[in-house]
Amino acid sequence: MVEVIRRLYARRLRAGLVDATLPRHVAMVMDGNRRWARQMGFDDPSVGHRYGAAHLHEVAGWCAELGIRQITLFVASVDNVRKRGSAEVAHLMRLVEEVIAEPLRRPGSPWRLHVAGRTDVLPDSTRHALKLAEDGTRDRAGGFDLTVAIGYDGRTEIADAVRRLLHREAEAGATLTDVADRITADAIGAHLYTGGRPAPDLVIRTSGERRMSGFLLWQAVHSELYFCDVYWPGFREVDFLRALRTYATRTHAVRPSPR
After folding, report:
1. pLDDT tens for residues 108-165?
2. Which residues are CB-contacts of 17 (< 8 A; sequence separation ≥ 6)?
3. Its Enzyme Commission number (predicted)?
4. Contact between residue 25 and residue 71 where contact means Cβ atoms under 8 Å apart
5. Given 97, 110, 211, 251, which residue has the most CB atoms within 10 angstroms?
6. What is the average pLDDT across 39-58?
7. Residue 253, pLDDT score
């Protein structure tokens, strides 16, 4: 009965979004995997990572059905890779390879994969699996783009972007004074890990945490933020639709009235 009521509620939410303004690009912080596993009674909280990785594909499907063609997902920060226990990191990286990268390469998936982050901090096998998935999906038609932020930190991204810009200018023979005189936000933005792709319209974070944790610090400056109390593996379609409803309400409220 509960499931029937939930499906009816989801249908009602979808109907309310028919004429609404939907985000073109949704970014998500997939937080709360370990806490969800504890909540569900698993002895090993790292089991939550497997459920969370698999859930990524379901959420991507909801986006595709609604015509949301750009998704960015925060999978692991630099600190997640460098500072957590070696066994947990190895488990997480295997999931990235087997549950994220490999399924995206299969025929039938509409998504082109992009990777954002310091891939040099990843194990060789994970870096290789992601590269194969990027190369294997690059020429897919349809215009659906999924960016995985892994080995990611927003401050490091900005520093790396400035460094790349300076190197490019130096190779062209520019002096530091020349660069300082003409440097712009657009010039830095073009050298971000996500350079060339649109900024997110909506950022969703699960687990009840109310902070960005270094995610898309540059790109999300004008994004709507939505914080959801459920943990990522338990993030339901109705939770996603509520986030879209809130986004539509906010964007409608700030839209200039016609003259």
Report:
1. 999 999 999 999 999 999 999 999 999 999 999 888 999 999 999 999 999 999 999 9
2. 66, 241, 244, 245, 248
3. 2.5.1.-
4. yes
5. 97
6. 95
7. 64
Output the six-digit token pair for 20.
């609404």
Q: CB–CB of 129/96 below 8 Å?
A: yes
Amino acid sitting at position 121: V
Is the model's pLDDT at 254 over the cut of 70?
Answer: no
Q: How far apart are CA 21 and CA 179, in angstroms?
A: 40
Q: Phi first, then psi: what are they for 228, rounded to 5°? A: -115, 135
Given 19, 31, 181, 186, which residue is catalytic? 31
**Domains of the chain, each with CATH number or no CATH:** 24-252 (3.40.1180.10)
Average pLDDT, the chain: 94
Which residues contribute to the annotated binding site? Answer: 31-36, 49, 77-79, 84, 205, 211-213, 224
Query: CB 40: neighbour CB atoms within 10 A?
Result: 14
Task: List the helix and strand counts (H, then E) for the chain.
Answer: 11, 6
Which listed residue (80, 145, 153, 201) is catalytic? 80
- Cβ neighbours for 61, distance < 8 A, ≥ 6 positions apart: none
- Cite the annotated binding site for Mg(2+) by residue number: 31, 224
- Burial class from Cβ neighbours inside 10 Å (0-12, 13-18, 19+) for residue 126 reads buried
- For the annotated binding site for substrate, the residues are 32-36, 49, 77-79, 84, 205, 211-213
Cα separation, 206 vs 225, whole angstroms: 11
Give pLDDT tens digits for 192-211. Answer: 999 999 999 999 999 999 99
